[in-house]
Amino acid sequence: MTAFLALLTSLPTGNSTLRMRVWRALKSTGCGVLRDGVYVLPMQAPQAAALVEAESEVKAASGFAMTVELNLKTSAQLEHVRKLFDRSEEYGALVKQLNAAKASLQRLGKRKADTLVQRLRRALEELVEIDFYPGQAQLQAKDAMDDLEREARQLRSPGEPHPAKRKVQRLDLAKYRNRTWATRKDLWVDRLACAWLIRQFIDPHAKFVWIDRPRDRPKASIGFDFDGAQFTHVDGRVTFEVLLASFGLDDDPALASIGQAVHFLDIGGIPVADARGLETMLRGIKAKARGDNETVVEANKVFDFFYSAYSQKNAA
Which of 132, 267, 299, 303 is the most buried (most CB within 10 A)? Predict the structure, then answer.
């Protein structure tokens, strides 16, 4: 980005309300302040349109405002302006908060920990949006965020299975009908998605048992998503993805899309656009539901909606 849009302003001295409103609007864009009354943004930044909007608002209030394009021709000029957008200190402060949050998760408990992690995730996303020249500081902050979210997932869902080292075998769907399926209680993303998948695509008349420990699994039941279960994490796949592969369901693009979101929310990895929305809805269900049975009923509706949306998108 070598072209910049600059807003030159002179606000009416007696209108403090306008001054504050314009300043807050400009600050939220991440603009650089070249000098008093001169605000700069990269021309290609999505926020650049806000400078034009601020120009109109200032003029409407009888102030002076003008937007001009700056084309910097020397590397020294470019370096000077780019320094206005250095977010290193902001990332550094955020990393300190992330590290402090990680150390406090255990004593906060699940609900407060989730709230804290969500707030810090939003803070990182907002900072990334105005980081027009990302570098090492952004990578460090993202790594710290990943560490915090891994810690929060472990707190939210203790007893997560360790990845097994084996090949996923294709299974006969007919042998898994009218069965009882068992998994750890206090269900979260992977187990909720698995329960929906089992009922919708594998065993329509499935019965579920929520257990405290793996050894509590009823003898005739099929275990999923715990160490020693028939269906659990395998290499880089979460249990939902293992079920897809085991029953030949992984060629359904809509199910594969859900699998990507579940994978990201369960063990991290490549961010998925819809994953945060799915997480928010499931967290809301968990907060209101009275027990795992009710959680599954409500979560099934969410996965149904996601599946329908993905199916329609892929058919277009």
Answer: 299
Q: Which of 277, 308, 282, 279 is nearest to 295 (CA)?
A: 282
| Order of strands across the sheet that contains 222-223 | 207-211, 180-184, 222-223
Which helix (DSSP H) or strand (DSSP E) does residue 236 occupy? none
Dump pLDDT digits (tens) for 270-282.
889 899 899 999 9
pTM exceeds 0.70: no
How far is 214 from 219, CA to CA, in rounded Å? 11
CA distances for 283 relative to 29, 183, 286, 289, angstroms: 30, 19, 5, 10
Domains of the chain and CATH, by start: 3-84 (3.30.70.240), 87-156 (no CATH), 173-315 (no CATH)
**CB distance 46 to 74 below 8 Å:** no
**pLDDT band at 206, cuts 50/70/90?**
very high
Structure letter (DSSP) for residue 251: T
Alpha-carbon span 114 to 122, nearest angstrom: 12
Q: Mean pLDDT of all residues in the chain?
A: 91
Distance of alpha carbon 34 from alpha carbon 48, whole angstroms = 15
CA atoms of 158 and 136, how far apart (whole Å): 32
Rounded Cα gap, residues 286 and 216, in angstroms: 23
Supply 136's token pair.
Answer: 């090492």
Judge whether residue 1 has pLDDT over 60. no
